[in-house]
TrEMBL record:
It comes from Virgibacillus byunsanensis. This is Beta-propeller domain-containing protein. The chain crosses the membrane at residues 7-25. Signal peptide: none annotated. Residues 179-190 have a biased composition (Polar residues). InterPro entries: Beta_propeller_containing, Cu-Rt/internalin_Ig-like. The keyword Transmembrane applies. Keywords: Membrane, Signal, Transmembrane, Transmembrane helix. The keyword Oxidoreductase does not apply. Residues 153-198 are annotated as: Disordered.
């Protein structure tokens, strides 16, 4: 009986203690700086967030102080938000002093609106740095990474990043420098004079075709066309090609590490997780191989340039190759307390191998490493340039602590765009990990000057919302323009909106137009001279025509609503734009106020924008039914454009669809119809006319063979060449006949 009584009293006391502790925690008044950094620019405004509304009258020069190295108080102004939960300490008018340490002190004597005191004084120390500071040494780099890892763990519930971010941009009209005088098609690019890498290139005499892990070189000699040679590298996957004089540039991913591996003795007692880090985890690597192709039958590799990181994008201009890549350091080891790792001995800098100077990889020099003080990103962005006119010249590599999702390049600048999440709203919320997943992003745009291969940071800005792809950015004359979608179109409480912003050459804001097409998102954008064309969609396709002649006052001139949407917009002439996308219709759903959007085939539209206030869909063409798809809807480089005629082509797979009823289940069934290249004449006068279709598939196939799916089309004079992984066909455009089919070497897949 006594034993039972004692246990009961212990239980009661425990419950009371837990209740008191819970009450104390729930009633504590806290202050924090979300995503605080130990480094800050000289004009940094610090925002301190409180768990309850505060009484601003208790915040004085006595209760809030910023001290410098000499323990002297620095004068700062206070600024509150509407509900007095966020205090912003404005930087001194002359700014903080570079390379000096400061400390923010908020006394526990400050009070809430209800008269309660701060649970404990708030202190934050920081060191000021120049606007874009260099990473001085290993200690500073580790400090920066540890801070960012800690913030990420707080925001995402201590989830570790365990793999390389291999997401590739959906991006991915001038030329690739064909060397002869024939009428030769070129890669469809965004900016005239700036080439973009693609799986197929041609110089008018030969075609170069990257087939995953090899490159086929074939002559384009009409009926005498044939395979000349093949290039294959071990443990290398080719992603895209460039041509420059007698050089062929191949960019892809390698699996052979460029780091020197040291033999590491495993602990005697190991778990599977322990074994997983022996040898150390390595980043994805982007490798550029350069071949001398002056002898097409015997191409010779003369250069290798490898960087640790996944490729974001590449460009070629004026004989220089530019690469942007993301590198993720092994933060899953650094941020895991179970891993016994000496961080000071751990080389987290990205490695680079350039055979123009050495056959061994080495870490990027700290002299070429920078960080953005306001950023929380824990990955590296590497921007490189290679002088293709001097194979003995070392590549230039600049490294920044911060990632990139998209890239746009003009004649004088490279712009990178990365998603930027505001975590301050949920930092005091126990469900912050869940809200992080649902939170929409803004976009940080960073501008770099380029001059003869030299790359220099110039400016940065943040815009509301996220970008659909590289076509959401554009520079014309002295104005940079960008289009974004802010929010989630499926949220009724905070519906998405679409926006367009303009900036000067240093990314200072000029003008904006916001709030377009509430509840929809951007599907495609095209900037042409002083006009922007924007397609949004949820149930119908509004095409907006936006006047940008006055960069300080962008103005919507007209809007057109039609079924379906365009994924890619291509200029036809000054008054007409071609849209490639999807045809849709709406289907009523029992018990729902929202109809279901059904994809009903591919769609080509010709928009007449001669009257900007009243754009019209002048012509349209629908291909296939539900389930039909084409690469043109996510990769503009798959579009063929004849250099002289209004001939356009693209590969596509067409399906038929029918509604099937089985018991209580109703669903749509798709049946394969056709796969191949579609060649159209598209003109403002006669509209959209199918010229021919070309397939590499065998007859009577229920499903398309993967190896026979057409990847690209190129033309030289009057002949068109279609390429799949297993063959190349020669098509005479004069009499619309296939004159030859060339079997390509068997593709030996390495995985």
């Amino acid at each position: 009986m006594k034993k039972t009584t004692i246990i009961t009293w212990i239980s009661v006391v425990s419950i009371i203690a837990i209740s008191v502790l819970a009450f104390t925690i729930s009633n504590s008044i806290t202050a924090q700086i979300p995503s605080a950094s130990s480094y800050a620019p000289t004009f940094k405004d610090w925002s301190v967030q409180f768990s309850e509304s505060m009484n601003p009258e208790t915040f004085t020069n006595d209760t809030v102080k910023v001290y410098n190295n000499d323990n002297e108080s620095v004068s700062v102004d206070f600024e509150w938000n509407d509900d007095n939960t966020i205090l912003t300490l404005k930087a001194p008018k002359e700014g903080y002093t570079v390379d000096e340490s400061y400390q923010i002190n908020i006394s526990d004597q400050v009070e809430t609106a209800n008269g309660k005191g701060l649970s404990k004084s708030f202190v934050h120390s920081f060191q000021t740095v120049e606007e874009l500071p260099k990473i001085k040494d290993q200690n500073q780099l580790i400090t920066l990474l540890e801070e960012r890892i800690e913030k990420r763990q707080q925001q995402r519930g201590n989830e570790f990043t365990t793999m390389e971010d291999s997401e590739e941009s959906a991006d991915t009209a001038a030329g690739d420098g064909a060397s002869n005088e024939s009428s030769t098609s070129e890669t469809n690019v965004q900016v005239e004079g700036i080439d973009e890498g693609d799986s197929v290139k041609t110089d008018g005499d030969y075609v170069y075709f990257a087939r995953d892990n090899d490159i086929v070189i074939a002559s384009t000699d009409e009926n005498n066309s044939n395979v000349v040679s093949k290039i294959q590298e071990e443990k290398f996957q080719t992603r895209e090609l460039f041509l420059h004089d007698d050089l062929l540039v191949s960019i892809g991913h390698t699996q052979e590490t460029i780091r020197e591996l040291k033999e590491t003795e495993q602990p005697k007692e190991t778990t599977n997780a322990d074994i997983a880090i022996y040898p150390p985890v390595h980043s994805m690597q982007t490798t550029t191989y350069v071949y001398d192709i002056s002898d097409k039958e015997n191409p010779e590799r003369i250069r290798e340039f490898t960087i640790e990181g996944s490729l974001t994008a590449s460009r070629k201009m004026d004989g220089f190759l530019y690469l942007v890549a993301n590198n993720h350091p092994p933060v899953h080891i650094m941020g895991n307390p179970k891993e016994d790792v000496d961080l000071e001995d751990m080389e987290v800098r990205p490695f680079v191998k350039d055979t123009s100077v050495s056959d061994k990889g080495k870490p990027v020099d700290f002299e070429d490493m920078y960080f953005f003080p306001e950023s929380n990103d824990e990955s590296f962005m590497l921007i490189s340039s290679i002088d293709l006119n001097d194979m003995d010249k070392e590549a230039k590599v600049e490294t920044y602590l911060g990632a990139s999702n998209q890239m746009y390049m003009s004649q004088n600048h490279i712009y990178t765009a990365a998603n930027k999440y505001d975590t301050s709203e949920s930092s005091n919320d126990s469900s912050s990990a869940d809200t992080m997943i649902a939170r929409t992003a803004d976009t940080e745009i960073i501008q770099f000057k380029i001059d003869g291969g030299a790359i220099t940071y110039n400016a940065s800005t943040v815009v509301n919302g996220s970008l659909i792809n590289q076509f959401a950015m554009d520079k014309r004359n002295d104005t940079f323009r960008v289009a974004t979608t802010k929010g989630d179109m499926w949220r009724d409480d905070e519906p998405s909106t679409n926006n367009l912003y303009t900036f000067d050459t240093n990314l200072n804001p000029l003008g904006e137009v916001e709030g377009l097409a509430e509840g929809e998102r951007i599907y495609s954008v095209r900037f042409m001279e002083n006009v922007a064309y924007m397609v949004t969609f949820k149930q119908v396709d509004p095409l907006f025509v936006i006047d940008l002649e006055d960069a300080k006052n962008p103005t919507v001139l007209g809007e057109l609503k039609i079924p379906g949407f365009s994924n890619y917009l291509h200029p036809l002439d000054d008054n007409h734009v071609i849209g490639f996308g999807q045809h849709t219709d709406l289907e009523e759903v029992e018990g729902s106020s929202e109809p279901r959007v059904r994809q009903r085939g591919l769609k080509i539209s010709v928009f007449d924008v001669s009257d900007p206030a009243n754009p019209t869909e002048k012509f349209s063409e629908i291909l296939g039914q539900g389930g039909s798809h084409s690469e043109i809807n996510y990769n503009h480089k798959s579009l063929f454009k004849h250099p002289e005629k209004n001939l356009f082509g693209f590969p596509a797979q067409l399906y038929e669809s029918k509604i099937v009823q089985k018991g209580d289940a109703t669903y749509e069934e798709h049946s394969f119809v056709y796969e191949g290249a579609f060649l159209y004449e598209i003109s403002p006068e006669s509209g959209i006319t199918l010229q021919d279709t070309i397939t590499h598939q065998a007859d009577n196939k229920q499903h398309p063979e993967w190896e026979s799916q057409i990847q690209r089309m190129v033309s030289v004079d009057d002949y068109l060449y279609t390429l799949s992984f297993d063959q190349m066909k020669v098509y005479n455009m004069t009499d619309s006949t296939i004159t030859k089919a060339i079997e390509l070497p068997e593709l030996n897949r390495q995985y």
